[in-house]
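Hi all, long-time lurker, first post. I run a small reading group and we've been trying to get comfortable going from sequence to structure in the token notation. Rather than ask abstract questions, I figured I'd post a concrete chain and ask someone more experienced to write out its structure so we can walk through it together at our next meeting. Sequence below, copied exactly:
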Amino acid sequence: MMLGFLSMSGIVTAETIKVAVASNFARTLALLADDFKTHSGHDIELISGSTGKLYMQIKHGAPFDVFMSADERRPELLVSENYADDVTAHVYARGRLVLVSNIKPIADCQSVLRSEQLNHLSIANPKIAPYGYAAKQVLSGLSLWDELQTKLVMGENVAQAMQFVSTENAQAGLVARSMMAVTAHDSFQCEWAVPAYMHDPIKQKMVVLRNAQQRLASMAFLSYMKTGRAKQIIEQAGYDI
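-- Answer (accepted) --
Happy to help. Here is the structure in token form:
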């Protein structure tokens, strides 16, 4: 079935768009990029990093076409600062947090956060990473933020936070649920799906940048991200829509 954003007739020359994407979504974007290329002919060059750092790179002139943030705030700032058009803003996914632990819990998995065996808890840096900010909200809500300060190990982004716990450099971590799809989590002692009410919604928004060099392909990708096939891939990767 042909979709409205596609053009395989050869009338439109295939382009390569540069997409700056939050680290939590990098693997999912790779899957989407393959599907997008199959149906449109356009390629995607993926540049991943923390949302905060990518935002600053854009403000300093990085030649990206599309920005896929892990929050709403940075894309909205780019719109207000005239780096992006509001008409291209789109919430493409909603992230969820999960606690993973290398410690066998005495009670439920949440009890690991108060375990004497917990020496290091990994989270993303709350100042630059939305998943880290959400983790801080969860710990604050449990009255553990101050208590765990000496035990926190902060990754530059949530992918690094997951790396700390998966390599056992941290005994536990508050990470993105989507990371579970690429981690051998059968080795973890327990998991706790953090209830959504414990932190602000992690609405991941994308925008096409005003200085996009490949605007036609960028707009085609924006349209693609709103299709049912794209949403299915996103949901299968562990996100809410």
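A couple of things your group might point at:
DSSP finds seven helices and ten strands in the chain.
The two ends are 23 Å apart (CA to CA).
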